[in-house]
Structure formats: structure tokens, C-alpha cells
Design brief:
Length: 94
């Protein structure tokens, strides 16, 4: 397996944070691949943070600098994740 193939198969994870009162867009607060991705997932589970599996979005977010707002081309995908989380938390009806 080539290095490129291995990178494509490595797990990616990213965490975002969004405060509608102060942020223009969600920001990347944690990101990583492989072992770092696993640690992000473990910490989210330990903190009872809901998880949503979306490998393409995780890969895109994991390539952004920490603290950076997500770019407009990811708004729709991230909005779907936020809607999922709001439904899980009972903030909006399905």
C-alpha cells in the first residue's frame, strides 16, 4: 500500500464549535488523523458529545487551521451536522 493510499484510509476527526450570538460561522476546535482522530473521538465520547460520522467532511475540516471559521463551501454540510445535533438535544423538532 502506498503512502497516499494509507493516508486516504486513515481515520479523520474534527470538532467544531458555534455560538450563534458571537460567531459568524462555526470554528474548528480540534482536528487530526489516525491516533489523534481516535483521541478526539474518545474525548467526545467521554464528555457525552454526540458524534456524527461523515468521513468526507471530517477530512475537509481536519485540513483547516485550528480556530479558523469553516469556509462557505462547507456551510451546507456543517449545517446538516448542526441540525442533527440540535435534534439530538431536543432543540428543534424533526
Amino acid at each position: 500500500m502506498s503512502d497516499q493510499d494509507e493516508k486516504k484510509q486513515r481515520k479523520a476527526a474534527a470538532a467544531i464549535q458555534y455560538d450563534a450570538k458571537k460567531d459568524r460561522a462555526p470554528k474548528v476546535t480540534a482536528k487530526g488523523f489516525g491516533v489523534i482522530a481516535e483521541k478526539i473521538i474518545e474525548r467526545a465520547i467521554a464528555a457525552n458529545v454526540p458524534l456524527r460520522e461523515d468521513p468526507d467532511l471530517a477530512n475537509a475540516l481536519a485540513k483547516l487551521p485550528l480556530g479558523e471559521e469553516i469556509p462557505p463551501n462547507l456551510y451546507k454540510a456543517v449545517a446538516e451536522v448542526l441540525a442533527f445535533l440540535y435534534r439530538m438535544n431536543g432543540r428543534v423538532s424533526a
